[in-house]
Amino acid sequence: MKKISEFLYIIKRFLVRNAHPTKMKFLCIIITIFIIFNLINIPTYLVIACNYISNNYRATGNYKEAERYYSNILFFSKKISWFNKNPLIYTLDELARNSYNQGKYKEAKNYFEQSLHIRQVFRVQLYNINTANLYDDLGNIYQNQDKYSKAESCYNNALNIRIRFYKKDNPYVLTSYVYLGNIYEDQGKYEKAETFYKKVINDLNNSKLQSNTNYSQAISFLKMHVLNRLGHLYLNQGKYKEAENFYKKEFLIKPDPVLNNRIIVYAYNDLGNLYRDQNKYKEAINYYNQALYIRKKTKMHYDPVIADILDDLGNIYQNNYKYKESKACYEQSFNIRIKALAFSHPDTACSYINLSSLYKKQQNNKEADIYYQRAILSRSASLSLYKPSLNFDFNLLCNKNRRGFF
After folding, report:
1. Domain boundary residue among 232, 263, 296?
2. How far apart are CA 41 and CA 80, in angstroms?
3. Residue 259: is its pLDDT beyond 50?
4. Alpha-carbon gap, residue 145 to 138, rounded angstroms
5. CATH code at position 22
6. What is the rounded CA–CA span in Å between residue 91 and residue 118?
7. Domain end (from 273, 296, 319)
8. Are residues 264 and 315 located together in one domain of the fold?
9. How far apart are the first and last CA of the chain?
10. Is residue 370 predicted with pLDDT exceeding 80?
């Protein structure tokens, strides 16, 4: 509306100064084209506005309500796609991310591939940052399904696109190296993962963009994330002192209260894990509670991050034979996940396996077996295998899936 008002003001001044018949005729043609153009774009603006509403639902963990909005927007976007493909592409991308957040990997993959197909066929947004983000998200899906070669191919595609637009020390380019390092970390190739992470830290420290206010928050966010990954890397190898040093370095970076909230929460939570693994349970519980306190400030309806922390608290209580407290934590975590995530989400499988483990320690084998079978069905659905007899390493699953990027 502001642009239209400015345009009409220019027209008014033009009419006052140039009252010539030929010029007036030319001006009428321009005005007509301008009005038609804006009328045509009204549906596009409506789609973008509705997507923002849906994004707000997704940001607060209300994925099912967001999905309802996205589905309606998708129908309308298809109707106007004959003259503008961008709203359809944008809606497919957001619907895919919403499905991914719920663990509906098959649906998410389908939406991303539709979006990519439109880009390739109609040569729309083929080489831009949104397409690079799409490849990252598609890579995440393959990684969560243990399809590492396909994930690596997607991350490399994203990297190649970003290099077209940015210099090599740009945080948006370095993000791709973090994704690549994360693949190797998931496979237990810690030395190779560490090489990627340390490259990112060195490039960020030497970047000329540190003094640029447009990039300062992106740099601090990425630096905190990589320090967290390095800490987690050493924690998995039992190198507690090195892990603790990396976690505590995160607190030296001035965080953005909204952007870096998740990273700070994970720093506290991972410090809790570090002390738990050294049997320092009092310190561990203190860090877990700090993580919960910070994360609850976001006031999400059903927050999967809070479910992660409750799981870790439940594990401590279970290890100390406090089964009542452990069950309370596991059930709170399960209630969050069952409302926010899909049955096929790996975190849902983790909740089932935690409850199974608890009942088994209490000699309640019947309940333990029921939850274990549900865990297998959940993980099978996630991998689209549907083979309940498969033996999964649930400890590995729950550890690696907990630290997704962004």
Report:
1. 296
2. 10
3. yes
4. 11
5. 1.25.40.10
6. 12
7. 296
8. no
9. 34
10. yes
